[in-house]
Amino acid sequence: MAAELLQIGEVAARTQLSIKTIRHYDELGLVVPSARSAGGFRLYTPADVARLIAIRRMKPLGFTLEEMRELLDALETLDSGDAGEADRAQAAAYVSVCHRRAQDACAALTKQLGYARELTEQLARFTD
Length: 128
Known about the structure:
- This protein is mainly α.
- It contains 5 helices and 3 strands; from the N terminus they run βααββααα.
- α4 packs across α5.
- It is flat and about 60 Å long.
- The chain starts with 5 loop residues before the first strand and ends with a helix.
- One of its GO terms (molecular function) is DNA binding.
- This is Putative transcriptional regulator.
């Protein structure tokens, strides 16, 4: 299992999040390291890294920290073989709502990106 554990610096590099941000998410309980080294250093599993990457993806789409927590919990429920039918249905419904919201955010960002490209092209005529 030791080969699967990553120190916070390695996690920061893989997730493109700062060490400070990762520690903040730990303090909030969004992503708690799965282990600690003998010296007390945080150690993360690939599942922890995947959870951090999911947070990184949600943040620019406007999800609050509580919404992130709820979505991560729902995804965990759906991945779990132990969850009951009612819990799975509730989790699936929340994931569906978040999926729609992410789609809407992507559409809005695509529109904004189009505007930014138009402006860039317009300004390029004056800078060449």
